[in-house]
Amino acid sequence: MESSKKQPLVSIIIPSYNRELYICETLNSILEQTYTKWECIIVDDGSKDTTIPLVQEYCNKDKRFKLYCRKKLPKGAPTCRNLGLEYSCGEYIIFLDSDDILAKHCLENRVSYMKRSHELDFAVFKGKLFTNIPEDSQVLISSNRNKEVIPLFLSFDIPWITLNPIYKKSSLLINNIKWHEGLEGFQDIQFHLLCICKNLKFEISNNTPDCYWRFYEGEKIGNKLSKLKYINSNIEFLVIIKSYLTQAGLFSKEHQKYINHFLYQKANQIISEKGDIKGYYKHLIKNQLKSKREGFIEKSFFYTINLSIKPIRAIAFRLFHFLYWHSKTIEIETRCFMTHQYID
User: Fold this and answer.
1) Which of 59, 125, 137, 120 is nearest to 94 (CA)?
2) Residue 42, SS3?
3) Pairing relation of β-strands 38-44 and 65-69?
4) Of 114, 125, 148, 299, which sits with the fewest C-beta atoms within 10 Å of its C-beta?
């Protein structure tokens, strides 16, 4: 391997919050890297357990570990990641969660790839899911090499997640690419789509998997996002994504189809949890995710299909179906989704 003076520095940025059970495994996997010129920036989000003293032990033993505590609002991983980016000194950036694990060759593999491909702003590498220990699953992350990734993100068939890419720091700074602070879910999709909308050049590597994402029934925010109280955050996410795509001149009818699918699922959930469907559609119209006409028709439909009188439900469904069939603003695929979801 080249001498350390010729090696570019890699900054690994990790937000942490109450991760005493897992963060040592993450930091140990960084210590074991065959590539040695790295710094690991841990930004704690106000842990109440022993996460901070555990991380401090690593900092005391190895100066490449650096611990910071978030002192600005809002709380959350996006704020911590942005702070980590500000504090970083590396030429390359990797974002990890505090329970991810890197294979020993990960940094060496990624740096070599980026040095061979000077034109790239970032590259995406395969990983695997795991539950208890790496390699206890053969499920791949980022195995799809199709570069038409926007439809995949919008349909939540996610082509890659937070730990898969390595970025040139200069590309992120020049294009003012940051994590959206305050967004309670889907932050990684927001960040990845922002990179694409800013026209960053990337490749999806076909190398062997070099990282592991922990899958468990824990306190990941993704496990909570289907709950009613996160509906507003879901809407905010769609507004942000639609804004990115529109400003980049990339937004299409196909993309609207995926947004409609997502919104219908949320409306059905609100009805089933006896939530405020009127307020939901008012919010959609205000944020231009639905027209007033669409909002009125859909809201009326969702109200009526939940009536206990079956003949009324049947009439309502057919009326709704007729109105949508004659609407030029609604995609056929969306109508098919509704038909499949609600017909007796």
Assistant:
1) 125
2) strand
3) parallel
4) 148
Q: Nearest 5°: phi and psi at 151?
A: -60, -35
CB 220 within 8 A of CB 257: no
Q: For residue 340, with 0-12 CB atoms within 10 Å meaning exposed, 13-18 middle and 19 or more buried, which class applies?
A: exposed
Amino acid identity of residue 57, one-letter, is E
* 203 membership: H or E segment, kind and range: strand 202-204
H runs (alpha helix) in the chain: 23-31, 51-61, 77-87, 106-116, 150-154, 169-174, 187-197, 231-247, 253-272, 277-286, 292-305, 310-325, 332-342
Longest dimension (CA), the chain: 78
pLDDT at 338: 42
Task: Classify 118 as helix, strand or coil.
Answer: coil
Mean pLDDT by 10 residues, the chain (344 residues): 71 97 97 98 97 98 98 95 98 97 97 96 95 87 78 91 97 97 90 97 93 73 52 86 95 90 81 78 87 79 61 57 49 40 38
